[in-house]
Amino acid sequence: MSFWKSPIDGKEITGSEKDSFISVFRIIPDETTALACFKDAVISTYIQKNGKESDCYNITWKLTNGEFKKREVNQKIKAFDDDPRVQDRALNMLKRLFVLCALKPAHAGIPTESDFNVFKLKTFGVKIKQWSSEREGKIYEGNYVGEIHSPINFVCEEGKIQEPVRTIESSPSSSTNKNKPSELDIELGLEDIPF
Q1: What's the predicted TM-score (pTM) here?
Q2: Distance, CA of 147 to chain centre
Q3: Using CB atoms within 10 A of its CB, is residue 137 exposed (0-12), middle (13-18) or buried (19+)?
Q4: Which of 21, 27, 73, 108 has the greatest CB tally within 10 Å of its CB?
Q5: For the chain, what are the domain ranges?
Q6: Phi and psi dihedrals of 80, rounded to 5?
Q7: What proportions of the chain, in percent to the nearest 5, are helix, strand and coil?
């Protein structure tokens, strides 16, 4: 095989602009629904509303259809949060994975990363949410998975782009402690964005 053959499809490498440059990264519109493959789940950390660091399950979904096919979107399941409402919602989302696959957890203990292997490569319907936040004069935007559904008869639709959240001034705490949510983030409800 020639060095100048594509590892993707075996075709001759062209060197064209289209094939050489990275396409523009676009935010997935809010409320977009798509089919997605469960790629993996890892235990990671995040900062709770109370400023404490906590573990969570960080799930990576790979979209399998539509304009955003092959894009990956994350979902944080905050099953260890100190806020009982956040923890209850997270535990229900975690259990929903099992229910949608007609599975039962293998044990009554805290799920480990390997307990998620039963979901790998399974397809679900997901609803993608859009988030934005202003910090130190810059706008940050992204996406996260907000809902999971059965893929059977799931309707895929593109949502609508939301305008980024802009503030008049950044909160002083946003520049002094990058891990702790600022007062403004808490006021706007942005500290609990699952990204």
Answers
A1: 0.73
A2: 10
A3: exposed
A4: 73
A5: 24-192
A6: -115, 15
A7: 20, 30, 45
Q: Which of 51, 112, 38, 44 is nearest to 78 (CA)?
A: 44
Length of the chain: 195
Q: How far apart are CA 164 and CA 20, in angstroms?
A: 31
Q: What digits encode the pLDDT tens for the residues 132-176?
A: 888 888 888 899 999 999 999 999 999 888 877 665 554 444 444
Residue 47, Cβ density class (10 Å: 0-12 exposed, 13-18 middle, ≥19 buried): middle
Helices (H), 101-182: 172-176
Query: Using one digit for the tens of pLDDT, what is the confidence trace for 8-33?
Result: 888 888 888 777 877 667 899 999 99
CA 28 – CA 70 distance, rounded (Å): 12
User: Three-state DSSP class for 115?
Assistant: helix
